[in-house]
Amino acid sequence: MTGWVRNVTGTVPGGDRGACVTDIWLVRHGEAAASFDQEIDPGLSLLGHDQAATAAQQLSAIVPLDAQLLTSPKQRAVQTGAPFAGVRDAVLQPDERFIELPSPEGLAQRSEWLQQALASNWSALPTAVHDWRDGIFTALQALSAPTVIFTHFLVINSIAAAISQEDAVVQCLPANGSIHHLQREGARWRWASRGAMLESIVN
């Protein structure tokens, strides 16, 4: 997707001529050391740390020096952002709005719940999920400076669905450590580039 598209409020292209373009890079965290139903807040696996280091190298080549760095507070996201923050000698700022979607607290329930959610539509999910999605897009709309956000699979899918205005939960399959360049001009959004994708949803 390269053309400008309307946003979740229904604003159509052409209403914000002359607005500045804000660049946002969404980075999916590296591979976690434990799965969704094994641990509440796992850090990165050895492969995940390698993916974080690779993402830092790639970001260094494309992200301006004055960019702010935001991260989900989850360990796997923070550890993915740490190498790039170190390269830039910059502060990595946790932001609760970019955390993974709300899910059952009990580990035994999480896997089945997630599989059902992935096969569903956003409109069919609970109110807590809608509030979570609203928080994500509100945070994005408030950005006025180049920003890198280290986040999660379903955060990226939520943003993709808001831009496309399609209801399916799974819009894309961002790979661990992948970088997705989003641009906003006023109320208009587009993908400037998309990062690596998985061949299947299992990861």
CATH superfamily: Phosphoglycerate mutase-like
Order of the strands making up the biggest sheet: 3-2-4-1-5-6
The assigned structural class equals alpha/beta
Question: Percent of residues in helical segments?
Answer: 25-40%
Q: Give the assembly state of these chains.
A: single chain
Radius of gyration: 16 Å
Mean pLDDT: 90
Low-confidence parts: 6-17
The number of domains: 1
CATH architecture: 3-Layer(aba) Sandwich
Q: What does the largest sheet look like?
A: 6 strands, mixed
Individual helix count: 5
Shape: globular
Range of strand content = 15-25%
Instruction: Encode the helix/strand succession as letters.
Output: EHEHEHHEHEE
Please supply descriptive tags for the structure shown above.
single chain, 203 residues, Rossmann fold, 16% strand
How does the SSE layout of this entry go?
Elements: E1 21-28, H1 46-62, E2 68-71, H2 75-88, E3 92-94, H3 107-118, H4 127-142, E4 147-151, H5 153-164, E5 179-185, E6 188-193
Parallel strand pairs: 1-4, 2-3, 2-4
Antiparallel strand pairs: 1-5, 5-6
Helix pairs in contact: 1-2
Can you walk me through this structure?
By secondary structure, the chain is an alpha/beta fold. It has one domain (21-193): 3-Layer(aba) Sandwich (Rossmann fold). It is 35% helix and 16% strand. The model is unreliable at 6-17 (pLDDT under 50).
How would you concisely characterize the structure shown here?
The radius of gyration is 16 Å and the shape is globular.
